[in-house]
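pipeline/complex-builder :: batch 7 item 3
reading input block
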Amino acid sequence: MPRLLAVLGGITVIAILGFIMLPAVVVTLAAFNGRAILSFPPETWSWRWFAKALAYEDFGSGFRNGLIVTAWASTIALVVGAAFALALERYEFRFKRTLEIVLLSPLVVPHFTVGLGFLILAAQLGVARGYAVVVACHVVLVLPFVLRSVYVSLRNLDPRLELAAASLGAPPHRVLTTVTLPLLLPGLVSGWLFAAILSFNEFTASLFVTAQRTQTLPVALYNYVREYADPSMAAVSVLYIVLTAVLLTFATVFLGLGKVLNVEAPR
Amino acid sequence: MRLPAEGSAPGAAAATSQDVAVALDGVTRRFGETAALDDVSLSVRRGELMTLLGPSGCGKTTLLNLVAGFLAPDRGEIAIDGERVTDRPAYRREIGIMFQSYALFPHMSVAANVGYGLRMRRRPKAEIARRVEEALALVKLAGLEDRRPRQLSGGQQQRVALARALVIRPKVLLLDEPFSALDRNLRGAMQVELKQIQQQLGVSTIFVTHDQSEALSLSDRIAVMAAGRIRQLGTPDEIYRRPSDRFVASFVGDVNVLPARLEWIDGATAVVALGETRVEVPARPLAGTTIGAPVDLFVRPEELRVAEEGEAAVHGTVAAQIYQGGHVDLHVDVQEAASGRVLLRVSGHEAMARWPAGTRIGIALVADRAIAFSRA
């Protein structure tokens, strides 16, 4: 009887894992379809959709635009988020609770609302729909995640470490550079990575605030699927998965990402 | 090391200003409505180990933080080595501090931890290396320079924290409950070692603890604190044998409280009646008490003994015997006692056989070392 339960348990786990992997598997197989339709399973096999996807102008520019927006948005969000997290954790002031609610509010405001808001605002102010609007929009969207990540690492930082440093003769700016920031580094890096992944994948708000010149990869994919239904989109997806996997593997092996993200125990 | 003169009145600062390492003058610090420290004045002599002893919330940690510069006083002045430091930030006070949690920098090696204060002072590399080596030798940690704090045992971490605080040659060393994270055996060894190092270097030290036995065994002087004030300042022996009030008497060491009656006062001596027994006690705590009034007699467990026939002050029934190796603790049910129980500390293992639980015994006082306070 216990043996039967163990077998059933194993099957359940495998089924759940399979279910999680299913979309990626389906899309990957669809990318190799020889015919110009998105279908599963494919009847004939071909690499040609990868060639087409790589050659397609909008995907290339979408990828580059996405990198530009992501780099700016997650970096700005990190600096702003870290400063706010520090203020919220360390100081008592009026309207502290209100500030916290406002900073976390993008979590409950739908992305299309944020996108629409920025679209109206940009039009009203006469700002051209350039990168600035897209970046600003993404900063607002990823800020809560950066804030949370830095806030949690600040909470886990023993304030006595900073007091000890001060007692040993370190003025405030040197306490910050020699003790606080090095110990916050895991939180800062994971906050940045989280923000970058969210920003690069963001679609709903980006649809409103991007123009042809600034459209990011998800928007480019959407515009493509409105006109064509061939497997080159599946091919882009596969490239995206492979690229991310390679980057994460590289970061884990060579930069000790596991330690940075606190998924590996330090001991 | 300098011992305070025997019999010096508690709190009377006979020391000249040059002998004072830390001076607090009328220091008050409030948190919201409550005064964590209420108009406290205290002088720590140079080279002395001064203990701040009291229950949690008595203000001892606040006092330590004020000396360190982590907090600013609402009123009053603080001086270190004769210099006013009330407005000086912590990083310019030249103090060494050791926290209960040690607060070692987890991202630095042992050597980098110990050398941190010297790097902040921009000392030359060679000097830092030499002084770090000396400091680690002092705390017997030579050879562990490259380890990370998390690779060390609790006792080793504490030694690193001590070396890190001492290497900058602080004007005053502050110890915040340093032993409470250690297990019992290690604690005793570390206490002896800390005391040796403190005396060897002659560093003025303020030691915060809530553990009265730790305070009694380590201190040159003890300041017993409660509710933001210093209740008594004196040598461990003064605190233990001549507590100034009921709080100090019950907080420091074990004590029995027995109801008695004030018979008469003659100069510095008073006599109280405990049953048929007359007991001589110091008159000072009884000043203003009317003759014949009920008073509480405070007696240490080692100053009681099992009475011979006819000389007992009170009677009771042995409730439990606790064998302690060198002596036996007899817990005796005594109706008159304030807590209903009296604790006797009798030497020798034969006590176990002579007075088993259930035995009815009489209790007498060994010597006139008891102290009486008027009823609150």
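note: Residues 1-15 of chain B have pLDDT under 50 and may be disordered.
queue -> next item
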